[in-house]
Amino acid sequence: FFSSRRRHTRYPLVTGVQTCALPICPYLESIQAVLALARENKDDEARRLLLGPLRQSQAEYFKRIDAIIDLQSEAAKKATAQAQAENAQARTLLITLALGAIAASVGLASWITRSITRPVFGAMDACKRIAAGDLAAKVPEGSKDEIGQLDRKSTRLNSSHEWISRMPSSA
To answer: How big is the CA angle at 161 (ends 159 and 164), to the nearest 5 degrees?
Structure first.
């Protein structure tokens, strides 16, 4: 695991952040040296190395790890804030689009309703006037659909009644 070709390599935990690269090699080298001294029964030298340079490199190592943790925590906070802002923006857009769709639906429904009911009410009004004896009442001609056909037939019926009413009576 601790091969000699890795001893002088820096191991950055965050890509592109060179100030937080861990000084793991001096720390690991100090540990290796303490263990080697302990194996050789040089306890005083191992203790001196353990309490001196090893502790310093360990403190530097932990300090760098804390810096990386702080950096990652700050990046996570920024990412959370950005995600919340995008979420609020998307929610606002979605609500706006929904309200626009509802308004368009209401407008379209009222237009369709008026396009159907206006000719029907016109025909009903003309039929009421004709039924009341106003043979000059005209049914407004509208579209070419069924309502428009009804309007044209009512106009023909009214014209026939006018013609019949002008005929002299035989009695």
So the answer is: 110
DSSP symbol at 135: T
E strand or H helix that includes residue 42: none
Distance between CA atoms of 118 and 155, rounded to whole angstroms?
17
Cα–Cα distance, 156 to 104 (Å, whole number): 39
Residue 50 CB neighbour total at 10 angstroms: 18
Amino acid sitting at position 45: E
Q: Shortest CA distance to 122 belongs to which of 144, 154, 92?
A: 154
- Rounded CA-CA distance 54/35 in Å is 11
Q: Chain-centre distance of CA 99, in angstroms?
A: 15
Q: What is the mean pLDDT of the chain?
A: 77
Q: How many CB atoms lie within 10 A of CB 126?
A: 19
Strands, E assignment, 37-92 = none
DSSP assignment letter at 167: S
DSSP 3-state of 66: helix
d(CA 159, CA 8): 109
The pTM is what?
0.49
pLDDT in the model for residue 4: 42
**Encoded tokens for 141:** 């001609």
Handedness of CA 69, 49, 9, 7 (dihedral sign): negative
